[in-house]
Give the backbone structure.
Amino acid sequence: MYSIAIVWLRRDLRLTDHAALLAAALRSDRLVLAFVLDPVLLRGPRVGAPIVQFFFDSLRVLRDELRAAGSDLALLEGDFGEQLADLARHVEAQAVFYNLDYDPAMRARDERVTVRLRAAGLAVHDSVDHVYAAAGDVVQQSGKPYTVFTPYRRRWLAAYEAGPRAPFDSLAAARGKLLPANAVGRTLAVPKPETYGLPSSARFPAGGLREAQRLLDAFVADRIDGYLDRRNLPAVDGTSGLSPHLRAGTIGIRTCITTAMRARAMRPQGARANIDGWIGELIWRDFYQGLLVQFPRVAHEPFIEAGKSLEYARDDAGYAAWCAGRTGFPIVDAAMIQLNTTGWMHNRLRMIVASFLTKHLLIDYRAGERYFEQHLADADLAANNGGWQWSASIGTDAAPYFRIFNPTLQGRTFDPDGAFVRAMLPALRNVPDKYVHEPAAMPPLIASAAGFVLGRDYPAPIVDHAAARVRAIEVYGTALKRR
Ligand SMILES: Cc1cc2nc3c(=O)[nH]c(=O)nc-3n(C[C@H](O)[C@H](O)[C@H](O)COP(=O)(O)OP(=O)(O)OC[C@H]3O[C@@H](n4cnc5c(N)ncnc54)[C@H](O)[C@@H]3O)c2cc1C
């Protein structure tokens, strides 16, 4: 038993359903929770304003909760090992507990920090928390990892049936053990994104553990039963909006799974498909996290070997148009405006814009992956890399290379009355429904009645869909048929 332990928070900004907090509470008399700001990461290319604002919001809420319990968050800045060792000296802690992070760069960091902390005489303990099933838990009978989702999901569900994992009772275990605020010592105020040269916006997703619980409760009470019908419609609030929360850990994955499974158990057999669909998405999340552990090379190269020989185009103008939402394809442009202004993008749209960048423009998926990383509040290496490699047909269980979304048809199917594109692209507000996903096809008389001039109000398409499709099938076919 330790007399005092530190719980080092990272992507787990909550108090309930928290593996490391529970482990620390069971093995220690007193606890202090710490978060270390890394100025190099915060000023570097791997993070953007929405995720930084989200983390800062969430730290503020967490601090409020700790203060309400008479304690405080030890908020530090600088080198992780030095800061934690200093805190340990100050509070006379003997151990540091943390939850594992599967990002290869973060794992390397954790190994370095662990060496430093052990050199300072501290015990270091890690826990599995961020995923429901740890990477090695759901594997084939041979022990090999799954690289195809459907059998993975089947095995994941069988493991669930065999022994569901309830949310960790961490808050109850830690209550009464938190160090009083005056013993926590030096602690910083939660900064603003501007401190690190990043803008804030009221349109970015709101962080915090209370908001996460509110979103989960509202989704399960009101919308989960319509999930399959509505999840592909960007104009509709059909999904949970929990992705930034699951990324920052303001809600625990066991809490989400348990809540959904409880709701499922209350439905008759024939009325469970929607909940199963949503649980399936949470299983995708585990699947991609596991892949990153089992195949860390996917962080920088295609999972499919043959994908390495793909001949990408150098198209700086095309890339700039894609980033700015100026491709002339309304659904693509509206999606990019959603990303650029709100820090989030609907899943159907992520698939459409990723297909457009990698197939229509033949641009390396890594450019799109990086752009998403810098602009999403939920930016997560495993899910982002998995989504991009899937869209570019070079990942595990990926979309076939000859499946090339027609952006105009995608728009008509999933935004039939153009409500979403009109909301994001005011220039299309008066364009009739029939042309809202293809303004370039509008006859001159109708365009002039709508007061719309192509090229002035909205760009002409930067590529011809049919020609781009033929080119993509040729280039991808040449590389991937070599498998
Ligand atoms: C190119 C591309 C890039 C993506 N990048 C990310 C990313 O950086 N971070 C991220 O969290 N998701 C990413 N996704 C997956 C998905 O788009 C988002 O998780 C989803 O849009 C989040 O909205 P929601 O919380 O309302 O989802 P819901 O539909 O409510 O789903 C519930 C949860 O399941 C998980 N989930 C859903 N779909 C997926 C998926 N395909 N893969 C993995 N987990 C999933 C998320 O944690 C999500 O919050 C990406 C998808 C694509 C195609």
Summary: Residues 273-294 form the longest helix (22 residues). The longest strand covers residues 28-37. The chain has a mean pLDDT of 97. The pocket of flavin-adenine dinucleotide is lined by residues 231, 239-243, 246-247, 281-282, 284-285, 288, 347, 350-351, 354, 372, 376, 378-380, 383-384, 386-388, 391 (CB under 6 Å).
